[in-house]
Amino acid sequence: MEKSKRRLQLAFSLLFGLWLPCCLTQTTPSNSATTTATPSTSPQAQTERLKVRLAGYPRKHNEGRVELFYKGEWGTICDDDFSLSNANVLCRQLGFVSATGWTHSAKYGKGQGKIWLDNVLCNGGEKSIELCKSRGWGNSDCTHDEDAGVVCKDERIPGFVDSNILSLTVEEVRLRPIVAMAKKRLPVTEGVVEVKHKDGWAQICDVGWTIKNTRVVCGMLGFPHERKVNKNFYKLSLERQKNHFHIHSVACTGTEVHLAACPMEFSKPNATSSCEGGMAAVVSCMPGPLFIMDGWSRYGHNVRLKGGARLGEGRVEVLKDSEWGTVCDDRWNLQSASVVCRELGFGSAKEALTGGRMGQGMGPIYMNEVKCVGLEKSIWNCPFKNTTSEDCQHMEDAAVRCNIPYMGLENTIRLTGGRTRYEGRVELLSSDSNGTQSWGLICGESWSTPEAMVACRQLGLGYANQGLQETWYWDSSNVTEMVMSGVKCTGNEMSLSQCQHHKTVNCQKAAAKFSAGVICSETASDLVLNASLVQETVYIEDRPLHMLYCAAEEDCLSKSAAKANWPYGHRRLLRFSSQIHNIGRADFKPKAGRHSWVWHACHGHYHSMNIFTHYDLLNANGTKVAEGHKASFCLEDTDCQESVSKRYECANFGDQGITVGCWDLYRHDIDCQWIDITDVKPGNYIMQVVINPNFEVAESDFTNNAMKCNCKYDGHRIWLHNCHVGDALSEEAEKRFEKYPGQLNNQIS
């Protein structure tokens, strides 16, 4: 018995001896040597507690790049083998209860200096990151492209106090104007740079301050360019003021998108904040042309933003060979996005969005793997790869959100009476001749979707869902006076004051219940026609009248058909297929509820919109020579992109609409899918198709709702060429296409 026990002990000893080194050995990536992981403690670490901080941008106070203070120097942690257990240890060390996630590949920007730890392996229960296994202090095969970050649960450990936690960040920056006139004018373009500190604002010492720092500050505040400032002008007034210098020695390179990404020194908590040999940093910025009265034409010839609800956001589109196309999101980052933003007259980028977040484009994809440094004048000056359909698809379209100057426009408009903050009666703040300010209403007459789009943009509430001409059901305010009427917007304005309106209020229905209202939404649909399919499928058919009784009932023939010798003779029809895509971020649904849908015996289904498209043939003057109203549609998902499921179908009184990423196909052989050209003489024309022509249903972008083609008709055959969506070509190419202003609706001006 004793012998067998000894044998068993010996076997366990051998097994443990073989197993233990295996567990303590960590394999690093194949290009590095294998090292033995050891706790990161050192004599210094044991006697002096390790300092930890969160840094980087963009971030909230409970997330960021992890930085450790060791041997008098700040450094980062490599993301190799990083785990949630590591993040839990770090978050508790920072005073948070736990971690909700961790980040890799320098999500919060690249750090500087040493990479102190690599291949860190915590079990999750350690008191400090230095007690976890790693390759040892300063032993790393990483670059700062692999800096690790953590996302901590926004809940503090009760009673946690630790002076070693330094969550250094610059979350909010402002310019405080000094000159009296500048205080009254928005945007503020010149003044003292101040950072939010505790419950107040603190200044930055300008010793060592450079124009590169100014560029970064201006970009954050929504300005594309910086300019030199006369420091002597400010010196005397600043010396009289009490300053609290929170930040010193800022050293930006000029490519950063936020001051927090620049190297800087923070004043110690209890130290007297002085700025020997300097004064508070003052900067002067140059606003983009949208925010001044002149110069819009100088900006953004070769780049634009599409599909965004707010100013300074949207899908990035670039111009090449007179045709607009998109940018693929591979390696898309804040530096490249900032080049686009500044090129368009905004500041640096707030967000670089990927995955078609601002809707998908329809044209070519011109760029992939754009690698801007951040100082380029145009995205076309940045290195990039030409792309193919194998590399990228439109579901990878890149987008941006840019910093824009604070204009205070949202302070002069409000919604009242709605069930949520996204809806209600629109009220405007106006001043009388004495300068007294009061709230007033907008006359609901002529109020429609484009006006609602501007109101929602000014409110900062996204896209317009509906513009309402009556708001009796939102009558909760004591405001009754109309202060604006006859409002007509294009839909692109920043505020309602920029739209056309009556100089003096003229409202037929002046009661408050007839004032304008809106329903806003964070998402919207965006319909666009497949122009190339129209060009590919067009043909002429001489159709006998006895086969057109149904079409005549639906008013799909020209007026002269009523005088024809029915059922003898024929009508000449220009036929083609329509494929209408929803490239937006919300499903397109008919405005009318199913209780008001109309049954069409010819088509054998319900139609949910009275007028969904206009089909027209125009002459060189823009006058209609033939019209083929596709008066109404049944809307359904004919087909969809991969990974998108159909949701709408017309059969069996089903739900109608077009899902995001799907399209509705009306084939050329369906009744009314034509223009009646029986009375048209041979010649050159323009064929035009307009979707949702009366803006009945809100969309994120109406500029792509019209499609035009050059059309040649010799009396027997027809040719279509240059078919394109309304916003697909450059202005110059569009002018070459037609020598008269194109129509976007069926109203002849």
TrEMBL record:
SMART domains: SR. Residues 1-25 form the signal peptide. One of its GO terms (molecular function) is protein-lysine 6-oxidase activity. The lysine tyrosylquinone cross-link (LTQ) is generated by condensation of the epsilon-amino group of a lysine with a topaquinone produced by oxidation of tyrosine. It catalyses: L-lysyl-[protein] + O2 + H2O = (S)-2-amino-6-oxohexanoyl-[protein] + H2O2 + NH4(+). Its main location: secreted. GO terms for cellular component: extracellular space; membrane. Its EC number is 1.4.3.13. Its cofactor is Cu cation. The keyword Transport does not apply. Disulfide bonds join C78-C142, C91-C152, C122-C132, C252-C262, C328-C392, C341-C402, C372-C382, C489-C499. Transmembrane segments: none annotated. GO terms for biological process: collagen fibril organization. Pfam families: Lysyl_oxidase (PF01186), SRCR (PF00530). InterPro entries: LOX-like_protein (IPR050912), Lysyl_oxidase (IPR001695), SRCR (IPR001190), SRCR-like_dom_sf (IPR036772). Gene3D superfamilies: SRCR-like domain (3.10.250.10). Residues 52-153, 173-286, 303-403, 413-521 form the SRCR domain. Keywords: Copper, Disulfide bond, Glycoprotein, LTQ, Metal-binding, Oxidoreductase, Repeat, Secreted, Signal, TPQ. Belongs to the lysyl oxidase family. Mediates the post-translational oxidative deamination of lysine residues on target proteins leading to the formation of deaminated lysine (allysine). This is Lysyl oxidase homolog. The lineage of its organism: Eukaryota, Metazoa, Chordata, Craniata, Vertebrata. The gene is loxl3b.
